[in-house]
Amino acid sequence: MTEGRHSSRCLQGFYIVLCMHISTMLWTGLLAKGLGVMLPTLREQFSADTWMIGSLIAAVNAAAGFAGPLSGPLDGIFGTRTVVIMSGILTGASMILASFSTSTLHIALTLCLLAGPSLYIITVLTRAMAGHHFTTGYAIATGIGTSGHAVGLMLLAPLTQVLLDTYGWRSALLLLGAISLNLGVSGFLLRKPHRAEARKEYLPIGSSDEEPSVNNARSHDTDRNSLLRRVKNVVIVWKNLLGCAVCSRAEFWIVFPILGCDSLAIDMWMMYLVTYAEAKGFSGYEAVTFTLAGGIGNMVFKIIIGLILDLEFLKLRLSLFVTIIAGSLCLLTLPWMNTYWMMMMNAFLYNGLNGMIGILNDIYTRELFGAEELVAAFSWMGVFKAALVLTFGFFPGLMFDKTGSFDLAFVILGCVAGLPLVSLFAEMLLNRMEGAIALNVRDVTDDAGYIHLFFYFYITTLSKGTTGRKWLWMGSHRSSACRLGIP
């Protein structure tokens, strides 16, 4: 019986990683890089400026991020398996519908309303499932699952170029949509969790100390017929269901800049690299080989960093610090990469480092939030990331239209990619300040001699209530003096 359960658990872990791999492959290969490969063709087809087509692609990514908070409610109502199946079918259907578009508005509406949200919801749920399922080997599982980004760059981006040159953009979208339907099939492999287990693991319910439940509110006879009370209860229920409480936590604003800045930089890289390479004088096929090199680097670096982290050879924050600096330097030096092999090496290194940051950020998020709040954390980080992409996604194309060059745009992106260092320094500073407070408390306790009472208090950072960093100070007899713990 034990061996059977272990075998079933291992098989389910494989299916989770497989679904994560396919969803990230389609996300990068179709919506990010695939549309970027089609950018010059769509620009000519619809007689549009570069920044307009770039804004369309950015809008697709942004719409996906804004749909992220729906992941929790959909998962709680229908279950992960059903959501993945239906979202996979909608993704393929939307790509097929986009092939019949007659304007950029039609393409934008089809992909923004169906393809983007469907794929992103699958990505959020499978990443959260991996966080719950893998008590050990989480880093390597995440590395293999998210290496779909690399496969998308290596396979789907060149395939898109071949289909585009052979059949045209309409037939290319039609065939890519047919390929995307396989994601729905992979959803059948996922095991439907037990109802109580699903409710325990996936629904981000707020603390009962903070907010009254609907039943408690209804128990008051005086407020039973109050419209205001009912509206308030509905708002509380949806706030808990969507996991809005994570946005008020200090940890959220520490970890989000890493995801947000890195995602903005890599999204712009994937959107505009082919056009940038062609502006440098490279052919379309040579430009696609740069994405192939990037995909290889992404996969190699992810697997290596996953193994290293699982074996505990490197510290998480030091690894983040080094990879962020190196990735920023790759973008800053890109304007001076004017030969074929220099561009290949730059793409290999930058995408590899970006893959490492993605894995490190997922582990960092689970460390700060715990497995129970991963759906809410990933969803709301996706919302704010979408706002960044939607706000600034057009500027590389606009700068190219105005100046005829992408050089300055990629230098700015390199600076943006280095901004998460501020977040890491802020966390280090907060930890030192908290350590100093702890030391002062211990000294005061020692000087006082005897303490016969227990004290329990919270110091919150950038938040209030029970949502900040917790400090538990417990004093007893002089022999135990003072004990400090940070849960």
TrEMBL record:
Residues 13-432 form the Major facilitator superfamily (MFS) profile domain. The chain crosses the membrane at residues 12-31, 51-70, 82-100, 106-125, 137-157, 169-190, 252-275, 287-309, 316-334, 340-363, 375-396, 408-430. It comes from the Eukaryota. It is a multi-pass membrane protein. One of its GO terms (cellular component) is membrane. One of its GO terms (molecular function) is monocarboxylic acid transmembrane transporter activity. Gene3D superfamilies: MFS general substrate transporter like domains. It is found in: Membrane. Keywords: Membrane, Transmembrane, Transmembrane helix. This is Monocarboxylate transporter 12-like isoform X1.
